[in-house]
Specification:
This protein is of the alpha/beta class and about 375 residues long. It has 13 helices and twelve strands. The strands form three sheets. Strands 9-8-7-10-11-12 form a six-stranded mixed beta sheet, sandwiched between helices. The protein has a four-stranded parallel beta sheet with strand order 2-1-5-4, with helices on one face. A two-stranded antiparallel sheet has the order 3-6. β10, α12 and β11 form a beta-alpha-beta unit.
């Protein structure tokens, strides 16, 4: 049985002894950054469950998004977060080092740094190694069976697995024979807690992006209660090549009516959306109550011109804001769902479904919005 690497976030700043080399381990920058992502003392999640040692020194799983093949899309930020989680779990299942190679449309390292896991590619460490391109979404039915029970060591013999995905395969990983012996958390923890632990454990905002988020809260939100909505319209004048969604004009009015009740003192309203028309309407409707993140609305997988890096940074910033809202309203979108996963609880969480708004829970979002995280009904 694979042994666990016992590393706790609060040990890192007080222990000068370096962890073992071949371990999913904290980067050198961790001790220099006491960022909010590490403040998990009161959480029932124990990061040591997700950190393995005795990894093969020259074997890797690399989450890959380089934009070199339009037919193999990386997707937007929610697709990429899903794939990072799935890639990391695949690295655990195969006892491989985990790395991230994402430079489309802009270098991932501009916005994110290592947290508890080393994921940056170190110089030429992958040069000269045999490799395999594994695009799980090319044949999703095959991939589901693959993750359920395939002999991964036999199929993935090359040194480096360059992985792309777009979909959530947690159910399939949990169906693997004897998975509970080595990875009991796959059977015990619900999806939101797995996402929250792995994403927070892997990713930390760079100082620039973290400072930008903090300034929004200290200078604009201040002591106000922050009420948020994520409204994904999909195909629109803003993103004419995007997929369509089930959000209609009457739904926008329903959302605005819901938010209007918070136009009261000591409240701020924030709307993350992929539509310029929606944000323009929100400016007229909510005026001084509205909080905005400056920058263009782009889709990091679809948009081909304009300020793509600025738009990507805006998406990252808005997503982090959603994770910190006092009240959060969701529409059908992985972007908003994973933001809800990254919250610590389901307090004041609401969902628009079938044209109605009602309270909901982090733990039922896959049922409320099936075919969003996974290409099948996740019931």
């Amino acid at each position: 049985m694979t042994s666990l690497c016992i590393l706790y976030s609060w040990d890192l700043a007080h222990n000068d002894k370096a962890p073992e080399k071949n371990c999913h381990q904290p980067s050198a920058s961790t001790a220099r950054n006491s960022s909010y992502e590490l403040i998990e003392m009161e959480s029932r999640l124990n990061y040591s469950m997700f950190l393995l040692r005795d990894l093969f020194p020259d074997k890797y799983v690399v989450y890959t998004c380089t934009g070199t093949s339009r037919g193999r899309r990386c997707g937007g930020w929610s697709d990429r977060m899903k794939t990072i989680v799935m890639s990391y779990i695949l690295s655990l299942l195969t006892n491989r080092q985990f790395r991230i190679l994402d430079n489309f449309p802009c270098d991932f390292k501009i916005s994110f740094d290592e947290n508890l896991v080393q994921w940056k590619i170190n110089g030429s460490e992958l040069k000269g190694l045999t490799h395999q391109n594994f695009y799980a979404s090319a044949g999703v039915k095959v991939a589901r069976n693959h993750f359920r029970g395939a002999n991964l060591e036999t199929i993935h013999k090359p040194d480096v697995i360059y992985f792309r995905g777009n979909w959530d395969f947690l159910n399939e990983f949990a169906e693997r024979p004897n998975i509970g012996e080595s990875f009991p958390w796959l059977l015990k923890l619900p999806r939101p807690d797995i996402y929250r632990a792995i994403l927070r454990m892997i990713l930390k905002h760079t100082d620039t992006l973290q400072r930008h988020v903090q300034e929004i809260f200290t200078e604009k939100v201040k002591n106000s209660r922050l009420v948020c909505a994520h409204v994904r319209q999909g195909r629109s004048k803003t993103l004419p090549n995007d997929d369509s969604t089930d959000v209609r004009e009457k739904d926008i009015e329903t959302i605005f009516k819901f938010l209007s009740q918070y136009q009261i003192p000591n409240h701020k309203i924030f709307i993350a959306t992929d539509s310029v028309d929606i944000i323009n309407s929100a400016r007229e409707r909510f005026q001084d109550f509205l909080l905005e993140v400056p920058g263009p609305i782009t889709h990091m997988d679809i948009s081909k011109s304009g300020e793509l890096c600025h738009g990507q940074q805006k998406s990252f910033t808005e997503h982090e804001i959603l994770t910190r809202c006092d009240t959060l309203l969701l529409t059908r979108s992985g972007f908003g769902i994973i933001a809800a996963f990254l919250r610590k609880n389901s307090d004041d969480l609401y969902c628009l479904s079938h044209h109605y708004i009602s309270p909901c829970s982090r733990y039922t979002l896959s049922k409320i919005y099936p075919w969003t995280l996974s290409p099948w009904d996740d019931l």
